[in-house]
Every structure is written in structure tokens, then in C-alpha cells.
Amino acid sequence: MTIIRAIRRWLEVRLGIDELVEKQLTGYLLPRNINAWYSLGSVLLVIFGIQVATGILLLVYYVPDAQKAFSSVSQIMNDVPFGWLIRMSHAVGSNMMVAVLLLHMLSTLFMGSYKSPRELNWLTGFILFNLVLAISLTGYLLPWSQLSFWATTVATNSAGAIPVIGTYLTEFLRGGKLVGPATLGRFFAVHVALLPVAIALLVGAHLFILERIGVSTPPFGLKETTNTWQGDRFRYEGHPGGIPFFPNYLLQDATTIMIYLAVFFAVVFFDPYLFFPPTAFVPADPYRTPAHIKPEWYFLANYQTLKVFPNELLGLMVQGAAMTFLALLPFIDRGRERHPLKRPAFLVCFIGGIILYLAMMIWGHYS
Q: What is the pTM of this model?
């Protein structure tokens, strides 16, 4: 025991572990009325970890060659021990990550947690959302199935509607005039190298800003719900009398993560093809266009928007304007009130936006 105590003291002098634990865990106080929605960030970190781990395991057998990609995926599913579990966990996980990220952003909007001084938190989160969509899109092509081949063809065709640079941008994305082996190579490199590193760096920046600014107080159960930040100097948002992160809120985090894992493994084990139409299991054939080509569920609203407008450029402009508005929302909405029921105009736009998004998604699915 003396030796262990001596080693611990030696490490403590050099690393300051007790001080770190006090600052980041037991002494890190959160608002007493904090709710489970705040745990979604921890759930996303777990999902990202699972995606990285399963992605690395898939790389052992996957071959990024147009002649071999589909057969290598079939080999993973049928011949590699537990290969089906790794592959389906990765594929289902990408869909679940988008769904949880959407819920995380909606809860942030609803509770007004994007308001000053958390503009950079919102902005880094918004960019993360787009990077997750990009990594999902690039991963979609890798199985080299009929679905992935033609969905990528349609998606890259949309870039051609941009004036002046559209044709060059389409050829740059494809590595040629048509989707082919060069496209697979480019998407593979971006999917396994560029985007994971970019996402990891941005997650680090997001957490750093959260640590510096402090966790926002939920606007529920309080008499005063206006934003009290003055903006003339930096002030960390502390929560005197709050609950410690460890063990109190860590238990809430663990509960939410367990609920997520229960749902995740229920899909993986009982309905693993929930997100996959039949064309996802047919090898890519550039000479045979499927009767119905549709993107994954989270791109259905964008897909239907492009069909509603008379030309693709107008549809892209509308979507670009909507995305720019969302990204800059903290700089546009400078109101001090954070409680959603005391912001009727915001509440109408919030609910209307969700209904419109769901309606376009359903319309896109059945159109």
C-alpha cells in the first residue's frame, strides 16, 4: 500500500489528477433543472466512437475497387465471423447518428441555447451536422450497389445546376463525366480519411467552447428566463448550488446512452434492413436504371424540394438560403427571452418548420 500511495503521490505532483477530477467531475456543477435532452451530446460521442471502431474493422476486408467492392461487402456479410454485425452496426449507426443529431439541434433551438454567448457552439454544431451528412453520403456509394450507384448519380447531377462552375464541380466530384471507379476512389478517401479527421477536430472545438462558456440553463421551472449575458466581457456561466457532473449527471448520461443502445441493437438484431430498399442488395449496373431512385430518408425533403421547383437551380437556391438562415440564426435572433412559450413567433416557426420538413419527407418517399 505504501508503494501504491507513493506512486500515486508522485503522479499527483506531476499530473494534478485530484485537481483535474475536482474541476471536471465532482466540482463541475450543472443547473439543478437540467434535463435528459442535454445527454444527447454524450450519446453522439458514443455513436461516433462506434462508427470509428466498426469502420476500422470493415476496412480489414472491404476492397475500394469497382469490380470487387460489392463482392467484398457480400463476403463481410456472409463469410467473415460476425461480419454482418459489424457492417449492420456501421450502416444502422450512420442513420441513427443523423437522427440523434437532428434531435440535439431541435432541443437546442427549442430551449434557446443557441443565443449569445453561444453563437460559436451553434455554428460548430451546425457545421458538424453538415459533415455528418457528407460522411453519410460518401459512405452510401461504397457498397457499389444499384441503389448507391444511381443515388450518387442523381446527387452529383444536382451540382451541375450551379451556374458557371456546375459542370466542373460535377466532374470534380465524380473524377470524370460519369459515376465510375474514380468516383468510388474519391468517395472512399474522403469517407475514411478526410471527413473523420474533420469531424474529430470540430467535436474537440465544440467541447472546448462548451467548457469555456459553460452549460446553458434550461428555461423551464425558472421565474426569470431572459438571457442575462451582458456581452461586454467574458463570463463563464457557473451554477452555484447546482448538481455535480459526477456522479449525478453522469448517471443521467449513462441512462440515456443505455436507452439509445437498446434501440440501436433492437434495430440491428430484429430489423437490420429497416433503412435499406431492395436495390441496396443488387450489384451496380451502369446500363440499367432502376424504376425508382430515392435518397436516404434524411435527404428526402431536399430531394422533394428540388422536384417542386420548376428548375434545380431555384430549388438549390431556396435550400441554400434556408441553411444559411439556420447557420446564422444566433446572429439574427438577438432577443433576450429564451422560454419557447414566451416567444410565440418563434414557436409557430419552429413547429411549422418541423411539419413542413416531415411533409416534404413523406411526399418525397411516396412521390
A: 0.93
